[in-house]
Structures are given as C-alpha cells and as structure tokens.
Amino acid sequence: MNWLITGGCGFLGTALATRLLADGGHKIRVLDNLSTGSRADLAKVAGFAEADLEADAGNWDSDLTLFEGDILDPEAVDWALTGADVVIHLAANTGVPQSVEDPVFDCRTNVMGTLTLLEGCRKAGTGRFVFASSGAPLGVQTPPLHEEMAPRPASPYGASKLAGEGYCSAYFQCFGIETVTLRFGNIFGEGSIHKGSVVAKFIKSAMAGEPLEIYGDGSQTRDFIYISDLVQAMYQAATVPGIGGETFQIASASETSVLELTQKLLDAMRAENISVPETYHGEKRLGDVARNYSDTTKANTMLGWSVKVPLEDGLRRTVRYFQQIEQ
C-alpha cells in the first residue's frame, strides 16, 4: 500500500516506517514540519527521497519520501495525500504540560490539523485514516479505561484529542472515510530519544548523572506499552477490514505506579551497569490523572492484537538503546 505518515520523523513514525520497509512492498510518504523529529532521525530508518510542491504528487516510486510541510497547510496536505491508500496521523502537540501552558496552540495543532487532514482525505478519496489518540480524552475515570466510557477530559490536551476523535467519527458517518482511533498507553522503547515522558526522561537523566524527579508521591498509575507492540497495533488498524468508525484502547492492560516503574527501571539500569541515581519527589503536575490503565478486550477481539513484550524486557531493551546512542 501507499502509506502517508504525518509526523513520520518522530518516535512512532520512524518505528512504523522501519517495520513497513522490513516487510517490503510498501511505499511510504512522510509529512513532517521537523519541529521535533529531523531528517537525521528519518535517515536512521533508510535513505529517502525529498519532495516539495513542485514535484509530481502522484509519484510513489521511492520506498521512502519526506515532504517537509505542516498539517495546518491545506496545500501541503492535499499534495501529500495524492495517491495515499492509508493515513497514519501521528503529528500533534503532545503532552499535558504543553497544553496547559498554551491551550490555543494545542487546539490549533490537534484539532484544526486533524480536520485539515480529514478534509483532504475526503477530497482525495483516501480509504483509511488511523488517528493517534490517548487515554487523555477520558480524563478522570475509575480504570480500567474502555471504549464505552463517557469522556471527561482533565486537560486541554485531552480536550483537543477528544475533538479529533469526534471529527473522525463524523467523517466516517458523513463521508465514509474508514477512520480508526487508537488510544495509546504510555509508549516507550528504542527511538525515544526526543520523548519527555517518564521512561526516556529517567534514562537520560540517569546517564547524565542527574537525580530523578517523581511528580507527587508517585502513586499515580499508567499503562506502559513497548514500541513494537504499538507498531503492530497501528499496522492492524490500517489493514484489518470492517473497523471503520471504531475506537480502540491500545495498551498493556496492566496498571503500574510511577514508583513501581521507577524501581523496575532502576533494576534494568543496574543490569546494564549504569550507575543508579537518587530519586526525589517534586510537585504534582496540573492535569495529571491519578490512575490510568486500559481494558484492551475490544482490540484483542476486533483487531486480533495483543501485547507481546513484558515491561521488564522492554525497559532493558530501552536502556540498551540509550547506551548505544551515547557511544
């Protein structure tokens, strides 16, 4: 198939592109404004061609092509969508703190960017649109989180992702675009050099000899999912027939507190001969939810998907990745 990956120079996009190129037979076009990921990050996947608005939008001859552009630019979006069979929409303003700091920017990027892409898909006749969401639209709930819960966002980020989910549903119902929403858990693994979430942040701090800051008392829980399991979920969402308009929780279905995660990560560091730093407790973050883990029964049943990599194994692989890039 011809795959358009928005934000494809980032952590998730490069992991998916690596998988698709390994499978063979796919053509990949990346639309990225390079605000986070870079050409160098994409080059770690494979050699790639570059395109611009002057190039032939219908040319998918290269296995991997980068189009530097923004999801808020309708002209760039329309060019990138020409000939695409499926869109994996990863480009976004990510994270609760950033959305609290600038809710308007968060809305513009996550809501208008998604709407611009969906409208481009409607005009181009693109069949499948996979939207990267998270548990944030559900907000403060009693877990496990599942798809039938009424959303109650606790942050501007959750609100903007909920709006994106709503537009996906509307474009499926009104225009027949097979939108599929994936609510990701906390993703970690190789390639997460630019991520500021807890696993990557703690490893980078430890390797720099810095103490690890745990927000609040560390009792808050999350559902951690390893990158290869997440990539498989994206692939299934793009290829399994008859799932248009559906939403899926994509996580490990396991509740882990930040304190528990920290201990497991410190154990992984010791196993890889990294000097273990001290930890300390900072202030609780605005917009954070106390408990978060998912019921993945629907994904197991309809997508034929399940987690394969245990948390401890994934943490050791991630630590090794950071060791390798430091060498």
- Total beta strand runs: 14
C-alpha termini separation: 37 Å
State the helix count. Answer: 11
The CATH topology assignment of the domain at 2-188 and 224-251 is Rossmann fold
In oligomeric terms, what are we looking at? single chain
Structural account:
The chain is an alpha/beta fold. It has eleven helices and 14 strands. The strands form four sheets. The chain has an eight-stranded parallel beta sheet with strand order 3-4-2-1-5-6-7-12, with helices on both faces. β6, α6 and β7 (178-184) form a beta-alpha-beta unit. 46% of the residues are buried.
Explain briefly what this protein structure is.
By secondary structure, the chain is an alpha/beta fold.
List keywords for this structure.
18% strand, 11 helices, 327 residues, Rossmann fold, two-stranded parallel sheet, alpha/beta
SSE blueprint and pairings:
Layout: E1 2-6, H1 11-23, E2 27-32, H2 39-43, E3 49-51, E4 64-68, H3 74-81, E5 86-89, H4 96-101, H5 103-124, E6 128-134, H6 156-175, E7 178-184, E8 186-188, H7 198-207, E9 212-215, E10 221-222, E11 224-226, H8 227-239, E12 246-250, E13 256-257, H9 258-271, E14 279-282, H10 297-303, H11 311-326
Parallel strand pairs: 1-2, 1-5, 2-4, 3-4, 5-6, 6-7, 7-12, 8-11, 9-14
Antiparallel strand pairs: 10-13
Helix pairs in contact: 1-8, 3-5, 5-6, 7-9, 7-11, 9-11
